[in-house]
UniProtKB/TrEMBL annotation:
GO terms under biological process: folic acid biosynthetic process; tetrahydrofolate biosynthetic process
Broad enzyme group: lyase
Organism: Virgibacillus oceani
Recorded coiled-coil stretches: none
Stated role: Catalyzes the conversion of 7,8-dihydroneopterin to 6-hydroxymethyl-7,8-dihydropterin.
Name of the protein in its database record: 7,8-dihydroneopterin aldolase
E.C. no: 4.1.2.25
A cellular-component GO term for this protein: cytoplasm
Gene3D superfamilies: 3.30.1130.10
One of the record's GO molecular function terms: dihydroneopterin aldolase activity
Alphabetically ordered keywords of this record: Folate biosynthesis, Lyase
Pfam families found in the cross-reference section: FolB
Residue stretches making up the Dihydroneopterin aldolase/epimerase domain: 4-117
Annotated metabolic or biological route of this protein: Cofactor biosynthesis; tetrahydrofolate biosynthesis; 2-amino-4-hydroxy-6-hydroxymethyl-7,8-dihydropteridine diphosphate from 7,8-dihydroneopterin triphosphate: step 3/4
C-alpha cells in the first residue's frame, strides 16, 4: 500500500489528567501515515486523485487544539476517526501523538502513543 507521511506537525493543546495541563496547555507533535493507492494520482497529476495535505493538517489541528482530553490515546483515536471518516480514498492510517513535556518524574525526551486504524469493510 502506498503512503503519505506527514511528520512532526506541532500544535498547542490542553490534554492531560492534571488541572495544570488543562489550564496551561503544552506542545504536542503529531505524525500521520495515510495508506491509500497513489497510482492514479501519480499518473494523472491531479489533486482530486490524492489526499490534500492541507486538509489533513487542518483536521489534525482541529482535534489536537480542540476539546481537552485526559489521554493522548483519546487524541490519537479522535484524529484517526476524523481522517478515516473524511477521506473516502483513505484505507488506513497510523497516528502518533507525542507529548514532549508530560508532568511525570524522571528523565526522558517525551512520551508518545501510536495507533493503527483501518476502515471496516
Amino acid at each position: 500500500m502506498d503512503k503519505i507521511l506527514m511528520n512532526q506537525m506541532e500544535f498547542y493543546g490542553y490534554h492531560g489528567l492534571f488541572p495544570e495541563e488543562n489550564k496551561l496547555g503544552q506542545r504536542f507533535y503529531v505524525d500521520v501515515e495515510l495508506m491509500t493507492d497513489l497510482k492514479k494520482a501519480g499518473k494523472s497529476d491531479n489533486m482530486a486523485d490524492s489526499i490534500d495535505y492541507g486538509h489533513v493538517y487542518e483536521l489534525v489541528k482541529e482535534v489536537t487544539e480542540g476539546e481537552s482530553k485526559n489521554l493522548v490515546e483519546t487524541v490519537a483515536e479522535s484524529i484517526a476517526d476524523s481522517l478515516l471518516s473524511t477521506f473516502t480514498n483513505l484505507s488506513a492510517c497510523t497516528v502518533k501523538v507525542t507529548k514532549p513535556d508530560p508532568p511525570i518524574p524522571g528523565h526522558y525526551q517525551s512520551v508518545a502513543v501510536e495507533i493503527f486504524r483501518e476502515k471496516s469493510l
